[in-house]
Amino acid sequence: MSDQQDNGSGSGRRLTRRAALQAGLIAAAGVGAGVSGLSPASASVRPGWWRGPLRQPGSLPYPNLAAGTDTVPQIQHIVVLMQENHSYDNKLGMLRRFGADGFRLGRDGLPTAWNPYSNGDIQHAFHMPTTCQLTGFPSQTWLDSHTQFDGGRNDGFVESGSGPVAMGYWDGADQPFYYSMASIFPIGDRYFCSVLGQTYPNRRYLISATSIGQVNDTTPALTDYPANGTIFDRLDAASITWKDYFSTLPTVELYPELYFKNAGTKVVPIGAPGTSSTAPTGFFADAANGSLPSFSLVEPDYDTQSEEDPQNIAVGEQFAASVINAVMAGPGWPSTMLIWTYDEHGGYYDHVPPPPALAPDDIPPAVPAGESTYNGFAQYGFRVPMAVISPFARPRHVSHRVMDHTSICALAEAKWNLPAMTYRDANASNMLHMLDLRRPAFLNPPTLAQPLLTTDPSALACSTSGPGTIPPPGSVTPPGSVPPPRW
User: Fold this and answer.
1) CA-to-CA distance for 31 and 50, rounded, in angstroms?
2) Residue 72 has pLDDT above 80, yes or no
3) In the 8-state DSSP scheme, what is residue 21?
4) Which domains does the chain carry?
5) Are 410 and 422 contacting, i.e. CB atoms less than 8 angstroms apart?
């Protein structure tokens, strides 16, 4: 599902990690998983920077309504499509849309962003030579992410384990479907990943609003489980339907007990695009026949479609397009809200320093030996792309509200009036401001641009020939050649 672990690299690195996780789950079959301890005493003290009332874990969004009350009947299906490992600037920084906070451009039309090398040389932002990526770079481990953040200066990307590729980006010509979608539907330019770390902790925040201490892609312990449960437990308690449609690895495996409880019933294979609506199961069949559950995760093949390095991002765009088009073409479209985002920044540069965050609980970061805990989990990770696709989506709207993955939890909690799991989701923005529930603008879904691979199959060539020269010639200049500001 994500990136570097145990200093490995390449596809073998990912397969080793996935195999380790699945082997652990097999070994745990029939073994009851316990619950991790949680004592959020200190988290109940409002931080000095926080403004306004602080909601508590276990509280309802609407205390005067019964838990399980549907407060947004216009939306009957929430679909979450989370890809991997790209920052906002890396994917959408060149989106020329009024109000969207992407790259600042110079007179030559190119980004002014840069980061220094340790010798003072300047690495300028550069257009990636192809839609393919390096193997094993960039990096977004806990240590590298904090090096990149550098106390809010965002000047440590090149010096970190990412190296110069961190300053690479793609534009609309490389990803026409994504840029078309992001030019029509609302996007968030202050949507941050939840943790300055890797995939596993960030995806745990997506489903439980805490990582229960995890900071890197370490194999979950068999007894790992959040004290207040997951969003799926909240949905089950209110008899609300859900599914995790997966290709190679479902996110629910990050909590083994959750996986074993639901494998084969609510954790099911995704199926194939174009699947007949008469097929017995799978996301594409359910979308075609209007039987999507109330809440669902749709997961790519993490070896080929997730956009993690060294994958070809054009393959991931084509997968995402198949999911989004299936939703827009299905009979459930008039009552659906799809959220497209990425789990974390992948080690790629972004110019917006992530702000402080509410720590979800009292569990400290389980950092590798000798590494700092920094300010713990009282910190968002870097920005990642996010868009809302729905008939009720505000056309061409750009949200500047601070959000993170727990905003998706907050959305589900607000819609069905479910109790919050941690301080983070209890106080997160719930995304509803990106909808106009009175006047659906897209009852007839718009026609979006075709993904790159549909119009230019030659984009697959780099999957064999390689990503090209990174950094490209001319993108590095001597010290003092670039004036501030850095971005």
Assistant:
1) 42
2) yes
3) H
4) 60-465 (3.40.720.10)
5) no
State how far the Cα of 156 lies from the Cα of 51, in Å rounded to an integer: 30
Model pLDDT, residue 347: 98
Any bridge partners for residue 246, and if so which? 269
The pair of structure tokens assigned to 157 is 């990307």
E strand segments, 413-460: none
* Residue 485: C-alpha distances to residues 111, 137, 216, 476, 482 (Å): 12, 26, 32, 17, 9
Beta bridge partners of residue 168, listed in sequence order? 126
Nearest CA to 387 out of 186, 144, 89, 156 is that of 186
Binning pLDDT at 50, 70 and 90, where does residue 480 land? confident
- Supply 325's token pair: 């088009």
Widest Cα–Cα separation across the chain: 64
| CA angle, residues 138, 143, 144, in degrees to nearest 5 | 25
Res 25 pLDDT > 60: no
Q: Is the dihedral of CA 212, 139, 123, 170 positive or negative?
A: negative
Q: How far are the Cα atoms of 22, 298, 319, 398, 429 from residue 401, in angstroms, in the given order?
A: 37, 25, 28, 9, 8
Structure tokens at 237: 């308690």
Other residues' Cβ atoms within 10 Å of the Cβ of residue 65 = 12
Token output for 272? 């194939």
Q: Tabulate helix, strand, coil % of the chain (nearest 5).
A: 30, 10, 60
Nearest to 19 by CA among 30, 40, 5, 32: 5
Rounded Cα gap, residues 241 and 49, in angstroms: 38
- Residue 285 · residue 269 · CB < 8 Å: no
Rounded distance between C-alpha atoms, residue 118 and residue 109, angstroms: 28
For the chain, give the mean pLDDT.
90
DSSP 330: S
What three-state secondary structure class fits 193?
A: coil
Closest listed residue to residue 181, CA positions, set 253, 34, 81, 310: 81
Helices 313-329 and 176-184: crossing angle, nearest 10°?
Answer: 50
Task: Give the pLDDT confidence of 126-165 residue by residue, as tens digits.
Answer: 999 999 999 999 999 999 999 999 999 999 999 999 999 9
The answer to whether 457 and 463 have CB atoms below 8 angstroms apart is: no
